[in-house]
């Protein structure tokens, strides 16, 4: 399956979760429900995947974790904030770099219409 097909189906699952739950919950609730929807759709989903920080030859285990990793290809970073800010974009781009993944989705569930809380990144 191509990355566009992955992200299209992932976004569909996220819309379903948002439709059922609405805005205003904690990130952890959306993570649990989205992981369920993605698994139900047939995706391999990993939660809270550790991402080491690499500085030259040093690998630092700093406790950074990907919210969701789908099919070992697409990073999903979940938020439940008033609005996405540049630091959220920097976070997902850094995760993509250190995890060596080309596709990332930043999803803010704390919006009235989910399409206003979605951003797709490609390295």
Radius of gyration based on Cα positions: 14 Å
- What characterizes the major β-sheet? 5 strands, mixed
Q: What are the secondary-structure elements, in order, as H or E? A: HHEEEEEHEE
Low-confidence stretches: none
Report how far the terminal alpha carbons are from each other: 18 Å
Task: Report the total helices.
Answer: 3
Shape: globular
The class by helix and strand makeup works out as alpha+beta
Describe the secondary-structure layout.
Elements (H helix, E strand, L loop, with lengths): L2 H19 L5 H14 L4 E6 L2 E3 L2 E3 L4 E6 L3 E6 L6 H14 L3 E6 L9 E5 L1
Parallel strand pairs: 5-6
Antiparallel strand pairs: 1-4, 2-3, 4-5, 6-7
Written overview of the protein:
The protein has 123 residues and is α+β, with helices and mostly antiparallel strands. The protein has one domain (3-122). It contains three helices and seven strands, in the order H-H-E-E-E-E-E-H-E-E.
Attribute tags:
five-stranded mixed beta sheet, single chain, alpha+beta, 123 residues, two-stranded antiparallel ribbon
Summary, kept brief:
This protein has helices at residues 3-21, 27-40, 86-99, and strands at 45-50, 53-55, 58-60, 65-70, 74-79, 103-108, 118-122. The chain is α+β, with helices and mostly antiparallel strands. The radius of gyration is 14 Å and the shape is globular.
């Amino acid at each position: 399956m191509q990355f566009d097909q992955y992200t299209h189906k992932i976004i569909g699952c996220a819309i379903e979760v948002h439709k059922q739950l609405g805005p205003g919950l904690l990130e952890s609730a959306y993570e649990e429900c989205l992981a369920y929807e993605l698994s139900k759709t047939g995706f391999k989903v990993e939660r809270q995947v550790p991402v080491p920080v690499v500085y030259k030859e040093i690998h630092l285990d700093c406790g950074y974790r990907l919210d969701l990793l789908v099919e070992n290809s697409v990073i999903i970073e979940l938020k439940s904030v008033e609005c996405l800010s540049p630091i959220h974009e920097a976070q997902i781009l850094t995760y993509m770099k250190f995890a060596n993944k080309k596709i990332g989705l930043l999803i803010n569930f704390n919006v009235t219409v989910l399409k206003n809380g979605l951003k797709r990144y490609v390295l």
